[in-house]
Design brief:
about 210 residues, mainly beta, Neuraminidase, 2 domains, four-stranded antiparallel sheet, 17 strands, about 0% helix, NHL repeat-containing protein
């Protein structure tokens, strides 16, 4: 997602080319994901929607939001990061609504799976959520940027989350973050967090 140039670009790692291929242009993109069928999912923070594209397609199909900016179950407000599971359900960090939404494949509205109780630092709340990760059990991990923590929400128990790391105020300590932005896991279960305003990536062993 080449956001500053309002486009999505593909670069081949094999061909030796030094120039990328523009797949989608005139889009205020933020998050990208790809499913197992090689459909591309892109969040648009200007249109407050997520679209699914076949490679080579320019217009795409709305799969989340697209009903204007708002906090209804069929709306998004600055959708950022995406995860798509094997059933093509879309998880999206709905940044300005301080929640994470799950849109089942073909659904007309989403389900709140984390936050959605207003901006705050209680375990029922999020503050400008960014990066998300969903494991094979459906457990959701959220980079809770404004609360400087990573919080975990277990499937089937949507009322409150559990702090995994951080949550010790903004700072530079090993157990602190300053605006965590993105996160990911490796196959050994280590958690990696892009600690944006500390200009570092942290690794944690999660039990």
């Amino acid at each position: 997602c080449d956001r500053g140039n309002r486009r999505v670009v593909r670069w081949s790692r094999r061909s030796g080319k030094t120039q990328g291929e523009i797949l989608i242009d005139n889009i205020n993109c933020y998050g990208l994901a790809m499913d197992e069928q090689r459909y591309l999912y892109v969040s648009d923070v200007e249109k407050h929607e997520v679209r699914r594209y076949q490679l080579g397609e320019k217009n795409g199909t709305p799969v989340a939001g697209g009903n204007g900016q708002g906090d209804g179950f069929n709306q998004l407000n600055v959708p950022r990061y995406l995860v798509v599971d094997r059933q093509q359900n879309v998880y999206v960090s709905d940044n300005e609504n301080h929640r994470v939404m799950k849109w089942n494949k073909g659904a007309k509205e989403g389900i709140v799976v984390a936050g959605g109780q207003g901006q705050g630092n209680a375990l029922t709340q999020l503050s400008n959520p960014n990066g998300i990760f969903v494991d094979t059990l459906g457990t959701l991990y959220v980079a809770d940027q404004g609360n400087h923590r990573v919080i975990r929400w277990t499937q089937g128990y949507k009322k409150r989350g559990t702090v995994v790391v951080g949550g010790n105020d903004e700072g530079e300590g090993a157990d602190q973050f300053n605006s965590p932005w993105g996160l990911s896991f490796d196959r050994h279960g280590n958690l990696y967090v892009a600690d944006h305003d500390n200009h570092r990536v942290q690794r944690f062993s999660i039990e």
